[in-house]
Structure formats: structure tokens, C-alpha cells
Amino acid sequence: MILRKPYAILIKNFKLIHVILTGLMAYLLYKTWNIMQFFSDYFSQGESIVGQDIASSLISFRVYLVIGIIIAGLITVLVLMYLKKKPITYYIYSIITFIFVTVIFVLIKNTIVTMEGQLVSARIARAMSDFVNIAFIAQIIASLMTFVRATGFDIKKFNFVKDLQELDIAVEDNEEFEVDVEVDTDRFKRDLKRRWRHMKYVYVENKLLINIIAVVAVVGLGVFIFFKSGMADKKYKEGQYFYTYDFMMKVNRSYITNTDYKMDALDNYKNLVVLEITTRKLSEPTDHLELAKLELNVGDKHYYPTKAYKNQLKDLGALYQDEKIPTQSEVTYLLAYEVPTNYLNKSMMLRYINGLKSKDNKIQAMYVNVKLNPKNLMTDLKPETVQLGREMNTKGTILGESKLKINSYEINDQFKLDYNFCVAQNECVPSIEYVKPDILSNYDKTLLKLTGSLKMDDTIQLRGVDTVFELIQMFGTIEYEIDGKMKEQPFQIKEVKPTSATNESITYIEVTPEMKNATKIRIHFRLRNQEFIYQFK
Predict the structure, then answer these.
(1) Is the pTM higher than 0.70?
(2) Hey, which CATH number is domain 384-535, 2.60.40, 2.60.120, 1.25.40, 3.40.50?
(3) Where are the alpha helices (DSSP H) in 45-160?
(4) Whether the predicted pLDDT of 465 surpasses 70
(5) CATH topology for 232-376?
């Protein structure tokens, strides 16, 4: 094969090559400036999740292609200058600069892709911003030096034409030379057979070790493929555990509501989709749930958790507020999403963003999907009446299968309680304690004595409700009828506890004295969309 040495054509087009390189570097400076503006806007507007496809628009394949052409051009001229014994410091600097720029662009693109799906730490974002600023300054220096070479203006010599003349285009720079491309196939085959025999000898001598390594590699690859295919884009149901890179998790149940636990409308008549999740940490680097990864997909819309309804949803459980997730035990929290009314009847899916993948030269999120079947707590059901002495079972409500039973009631201004006061282990004397309402009040009061029991469903996440009084205080209203008119207890109820004569099955509650003359007395329980009326009289 006959080839021609390229030196002459490179020397003749020396300025043109540098003009082209200058134009490409100017384009790269423009793209770097855009990235700097992106980070400036990101910090000035408040750190948040950025829009989709920002990364690909800022740093596209074209940017990497331009960098590749610049580096290739610089290396070509570097070789020419080296062979002609000319200064090469500038070209070495420029090549190192654009290799550095390539690395920085890769890091920045990965960071912005992460920003599209979740919040990143301010430290990482600031570091990326600093790196791009350094890359911009380094590019300016390289671009100015290339521009000088392109225009023929040399700062030191003021006559770059002399440099071209000193490159000394000789006849041999343009001469032809012969390249032998024939291949000795027989020699190639003999060498291949010799290497194959050597590999078999090595295998026989180290058979056990090689087999163990092979098995570990195959099993490891199989486990990796299983988890990659099993976690990404798989669909689960409520109650099913799924694994992410950071957590083990399941959605226990889900609700739709527009009221707080007292059945008052939420601010601005908001609608909430509430998820009850159980989770445990798997990996050490992360100990908090990243809410931006817990995306609620409703129709073609996406919503993210809010922390604004901690007190309003306490009957359903504890709203997640950035608590640490433990490794050794499971914890259960609520996630709340604000969803417009016209989307409440659409299918809902929890999508956990579990990493990124490349498809068709684009970076896409990998999801773990959980199909939701939310219970509508906005549909009122017919109240259920329970008579005194009967058991109230809340099965099918937010309290699960909790059970309340009131055996008897009594209203009096005070109650006399007998008990034994022990001064020593075997020395006790009969004593009396009087239970009375608090007299330091603006209201006249009497006492309602309830004898009964409460067994709460241990599968629900309601906290702070363990006694009969606590259940009434959170969900109940004491109602009574006077002269055919139903009234409510006029002031906030308060429990009175005996000091010495304690009995867990008896509850004393301060109520209005008017209740003594009532023809009907009941407790009205409102458990979101389900109501119970416990009739005493």
C-alpha cells in the first residue's frame, strides 16, 4: 500500500486548522457558559428538583463530539510540532485542559440527571458549580492561545509567519512511502494453537480454583441480573414488600380524604391521597427517605409528598417528617399527597425512583411500581347504633378491628371509693377516696362514670389512644336529649383519675350537670366516613 506523508498538507493549512479549532472552542465555551447560568439560577431560585431533560439539553452528544474533534486536532498538531522540533507546551496544556473538561462534563451531567429525579446535597451542587467555573477559565486561556495561532499574531514575536517558515516544508514531507499490509495466516494459526494448548495446561493445573471463580462469577452475575430485572419497573400490590437499593418497603394501605380527624374540611378544601408505608434501611449511606423518589402517579400527572398535615392526619398514623430509618427494625409512617378533585377517580400508582438507566442514548429513571387501591374516606356510610352492654367493633374503619364495650354508666356529683391503705406489706387499713370534678372552672360540672373496656387493633398505627377516655376524646362527642332537643356536651371533656383507688375498667369524665335530667344519652363516634352511636339511655 502506498501512503503519502501528511506533514506538508498540515503545514500549509496550519492557520486553517487553528481557525477551525478556535470555532469549536468558542462553541464549547458557549455551552460551558450555559451550564454556569444553570447553576446560578439553581442556587438563586432555591434548591429543588429540576425539569426533565435538562441534562441532555445542556450536555448533549454533540458536546462530546466537539471535544473529541478538538483533542484529535490538538494531538495531530502536537505530533507535527514535535517532529519538527518546535515548542509544544501550548498543545500539551490544551489537551490536558479538554480532557479535564470532558471529565467535568461527565460528572456534571450525572449530577443534573440526579437533580431531575431527586434533591442533591448543596455541597455536591456547589462543587459541580466550582468545577465548571474552573473549566471555563481554563478553556478561555486555551481558546485565546489558539486564536493567536489562527490569526498569525504572536505575543512574543509579533510575527507568527516566521514560525510557519521555520517549520521548513521539505520534499521528503510530501514524499510517498510503502506500507506492507500482508498477513501471514499460517503463522497466525500456529500462534493461536500454541496459546490454546497453553490455556488448557493452565486449566488442568488450576482446575479447582478456576471452577470456584467461575461459579462465583456466574452466581454473582445471576444475582445482579435478578435484582436489576426484579427491582426495575416491576409492579407490586399493597401489602407486598419490595426492595430498593436503600430500603425494604411496603405500602400497607392507602386512603383518600378531604378532612382532618375531627371531620373538619382541610385548608382550601384540599384532597389528600394518604399512604401508610412500612420500611427498614438496607444500606449505610442513606438513613432518611428521599421524598422526591416517592412519586405518586395519577393518570398522566405526578405528585410528591407534603409534610404539611401532621396534626390533621394523626388518627391515621404519624406523617413522615424526615425521621431516621433504622436498620434493625421496621417503622411505619404516612405519606400525604395533594391531588386535585378531578383526578381522584383515576388509577393511582406509587413509583419509587430506584436509580437510572441508559436507553436509546437517553438517561431514564428506573421505577419500582406499587398499584394502589385507596379507601375513599369521603363517602359517608350509614351510622351504626350500639346499645349499652354490647360490643362496638370498628372492623372496616380506620381503627381496624378495635373493640369497645361499655357495661354501665352512672352520673353523680361525686363518687365514694373504698380501698385499702397499706402502711406495710401485711398491714393495711380500710380507707375512702372521693372523686370529684374540678371546681376551679367557669362551668358547673358533674361526673359521668363509665365501666367498660377497650381493645385496640395492634395492626393500626394510631398513637396516643389506649384508653376509653382517649378514644372518646379523639373521635367521640357526648350527646344528650333535653325536652326533645339533642344537645352536645358544651365544654371540652376532661378525665378525673383517682389518686389511690385506681381501676383500669372505670373512667370518670367531667360533663355538664344538665345531663342528669336527659332522656337520652349517647356517645357519637366519627371515624372519618364511618359513624357509630353508642346509646346509653
Answers:
(1) no
(2) 2.60.40
(3) 54-58, 61-83, 89-117, 122-151
(4) yes
(5) Immunoglobulin-like (2.60.40)
